[in-house]
Specification:
Layout: E1 12-15, E2 26-27, H1 51-64, H2 69-72, H3 89-94, E3 101-104, E4 107-109, E5 118-122, E6 125-129, H4 135-148, E7 156-160, H5 166-169, H6 172-179, E8 182-186, H7 187-195, E9 199-200, E10 212-214, E11 219-222, E12 225-228, E13 243-248, E14 251-258, H8 269-289, E15 291-296, H9 299-302, H10 304-310, H11 323-345
Parallel strand pairs: 2-9, 6-7, 7-8, 8-10, 14-15
Antiparallel strand pairs: 1-11, 3-4, 4-5, 5-6, 11-12, 13-14
């Protein structure tokens, strides 16, 4: 008789509660465009930008202040002379994984230095947000990290894929095959993963088979925990940025995990327009819901690894940014996108 029994399947559900709001297959020898903007230097243009571009960049700089410079790097796309320097994916994956850590009572980091995986604990098991690059990382970093934290990998009931790029879905099949985990993704990105991947490399695992499909406004519930599905198109057209509660003792915070940040899609105005609309809408929703925690699926944006290292039992939680800072982060992203679109339209 097993020591641990799986809860009944009914404890997980994904349901629609409202209407939906809102090509290339690249060889990634040099790296992943999910995070390519992180190789960019601080904003420094070779020629003076147009008035429209300058206005949006100035608004982005003002919102970024001294603490949100990672997001401000997105503004490099508004430089007509900017050439994207893709990082070396193999080198990024070869970096030693940081130790796993506890961000909140119900939220744990089990990712690498360059791409993140988050574990949300519930009364009926664990929800993973993303699954790393491949089976090896899923076993070594995610499964191993859960064990280090005293969590049981067999309790991973649900994997939410933020978007259909291999550094986020590549290790999902490991948990599906070993633990029968369910996989949730947006309808748009399921279709992309089934038909025409935007990016691919042999370093990534194969996409999981279509399982649970959600659209904007859905709720994904496991036990006592619900993730509100916010579809934020742009990075991919089906990027998911979930909203959920996190706890520190009796203190509750509202978190937004941004599912896809970089302008990785080439000169496609419709994608950038979708990104602009998504960040503006998310900013409004974050204000309405009092979101004070803003995290990412790439450490270079939210500095999760560094925050875990500085987190102490008796000090303030560095993951709690405050509502105003969350608003500023979304503003930086929005204004950088608007600056880039202004360049394209000039």
């Amino acid at each position: 008789m097993p020591l641990l029994q799986r809860p009944a399947p009914a404890s997980f559900r994904a349901e629609e509660i409202g209407p939906s709001a809102v090509s290339r297959r690249a060889f990634l020898k040099l790296g992943c465009a999910c995070c390519a903007m992180l190789a960019a230097p601080p904003l420094a243009f070779g020629q003076a930008p147009s008035p429209d571009v300058a206005r949006h960049l100035e608004a982005a700089k003002e919102a970024a202040g001294s603490d949100l410079g990672a997001y401000l790097a997105l503004g490099q796309s508004a430089d007509p002379n900017f050439k994207l320097q893709l990082p070396d994916l193999k080198a990024l994956m070869a970096m030693p994984a940081p130790p796993p850590g506890k961000a909140f009572d119900n939220l744990y980091f089990v990712g690498s230095k360059w791409v993140s995986c988050w574990a949300i604990t519930t009364s009926a098991g664990i929800i993973l947000v993303d699954a790393m690059d491949n089976d090896d990382e899923a076993a070594r970093i995610v499964e191993g990290g859960l064990k280090t934290l005293g969590l049981d990998p067999a309790e991973v009931k649900t994997i939410l894929i933020t978007h259909g790029h291999g550094d986020h879905y590549g290790g999902a099949n490991y948990f599906v095959d070993k633990y029968k985990s369910r996989v949730v993704a947006s309808e748009a990105d399921w279709t992309m993963m089934e038909t025409k991947l935007e990016f691919d490399t042999p370093l990534w695992g194969r996409p999981p088979k279509r399982d649970v499909s959600v659209t904007d406004g859905a709720k994904v519930t496991l036990g006592d925990t619900t993730l509100d599905i916010l579809v934020t198109p742009g990075h991919t057209m089906g990027t998911i940025s979930p909203l959920f509660d996190v706890w520190s003792g009796s203190q509750k915070h509202r978190a937004l995990l941004w599912g896809g940040t970089a302008f990785n899609f080439g000169k496609k105005p419709e994608r950038l327009e979708a990104y602009i609309e998504a960040t503006a809408r998310a900013r409004t929703i974050a204000k309405q819901q009092g979101v004070d925690v803003f995290i990412s699926n790439h450490n270079a944006f939210d500095h999760a690894v560094e925050k875990l290292a500085e987190k102490s039992a008796d000090g303030p939680n560095p993951f709690v940014l405050g509502e105003a800072t969350v608003q500023r982060a979304l503003t930086v992203m929005n204004e950088c996108a608007q600056a880039t679109l202004a360049l394209w339209n000039s």
